[in-house]
Design goal:
The chain has 174 residues and is an alpha+beta fold. The chain has one domain: Gcn5-related N-acetyltransferase (GNAT) (Aminopeptidase), CATH 3.40.630.30. The protein is 34% helix and 26% strand. The chain has six helices and seven strands. The strands form two sheets. It has a four-stranded antiparallel sheet, sandwiched between helices. It has a three-stranded antiparallel sheet with strand order 5-7-6, covered by helices on one side. The radius of gyration is 15 Å and the shape is globular. The protein starts with 5 loop residues before the first helix and ends with a strand. InterPro entries: Acyl_CoA_acyltransferase, GNAT_dom, N-acetyltransferase. One of its GO terms (molecular function) is acyltransferase activity, transferring groups other than amino-acyl groups. This is GNAT family N-acetyltransferase. It comes from Streptomyces boluensis.
Length: 174
């Protein structure tokens, strides 16, 4: 497969989303096993058990809310990562908000997958009755900040995490 040229990079790629399966824990563990992918997520590869718990939690979110962090697949049904929405899971930050997010394996970067999948996420959460979403992005994560801009999100707040890192809360009314 060749890399997209600038003219094809603007083309919206085919992206499929599904509720994560138990097997997706292994796929997420594999595709996220790259230092650049994990730079803003703890800096190192997470244990498989983290993804087993995360995929199980997302299945519960889908059953309870009608949305979750879905497994993102390309046109050939290869796992690229995840995108979707979930209630903000921490006791700090935008408590009670619905957070959208995405994480791609390194091989899928720069092809428009995150933006295309995030747009589908916005359609799905709007259909589920959500009226506003947030995206929490680490300062310095320019790729994710660019996705928030493509979605039309606006910077609402700069915050400090419990570990002392700076981040941004972007918001979008649906």
């Amino acid at each position: 497969m060749t890399s997209p040229t600038p003219s094809t990079a603007e083309h919206t790629p085919v992206v499929k989303l599904r509720v994560p399966t138990e097997e997706d824990a292994y796929a997420w563990h594999r595709v996220f096993d790259h230092p650049e992918v994990m730079e803003f997520h703890g800096g190192r590869t997470a244990e498989l058990s983290v993804y087993e718990e995360l995929t199980a939690r997302q299945r519960r979110h889908d059953a309870e809310h009608g949305f979750c962090l879905w497994t993102m697949l390309d046109e050939d049904d290869q796992v690229l990562g995840f995108t979707g929405a979930q209630p903000w899971p921490h006791a700090w930050g935008p408590e009670g908000a619905i957070e959208i997010g995405w994480r791609l394996g390194r091989a899928a970067w720069g092809r428009g997958y995150a933006t295309a999948a995030a747009r589908t996420t916005l359609e799905r959460v709007r259909a589920a009755g959500v009226s506003e979403v947030v995206a929490m992005v680490a300062a310095g994560n320019e790729r994710s900040i660019a996705v928030t801009r493509r979605l039309g999100m606006e910077l609402a707040e700069t915050f400090t995490t419990p570990t002392g890192k700076t981040g941004y809360c972007f918001k979008l009314a649906l």
